[in-house]
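Notes, p. 3: input format for complexes.
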Amino acid sequence: RPTVGILALQGGVAEHAAMLETLGARVVPVRTEGALTESSLDGLVLPGGESSTVDRLLRRFQLRDPLVEMLAEGLPVLGTCAGMILLAEQIVDPAPGQQSLAVVPISVQRNAFGPQADSATEMLETTLGPVNAAFIRAPAVVSAGDGVAVVARRGTDVAGDGPIVGVATDQAVALSFHPELTGDVTFHHEFLDRL
Ligand code: GLN
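Output follows (195 residues plus glutamine):
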């Protein structure tokens, strides 16, 4: 069974862990360089939270450089919400000094749906079928480069013109929303299947 790390510096770690364990994965919370590099991880989850805080903590805990290296070597990764922002090559409106890990050639806008969208839960028509998704101060993808597949838009199916809220590359899946908060295992299941 696959071993999946969850970056556990801040944010919604427990829900991802519970879902991955339900699906049969061995879960390793990652707070140290050792946990990252010595756990034989098959994949990594970057949870939601506050991307600028996680970015700061990554550097404070000296996790950023080893993480960038493992991602450059191709470690499969699933990021939700703040995790999507961390994966993005470009943040349109970063917090002062905020950096990303630049794994997926997308540009993201933080808090793209405004405060009225707080805690909205809705069904999305994704490439994997209908998915129950929670949006909490969610980012949107404002542009996507080569090799990036759109897997979900908000309010329309992927062929429509709704804002892009899910993308995938060969290595990474980045979602604006939180399937782990609604108990929808679709994307986690697909992620584990590919490990
Ligand atoms: N708005 C947050 C950020 O900029 C993300 C919110 C979330 O992860 N639920 O990081």
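The chain has a mean pLDDT of 96.
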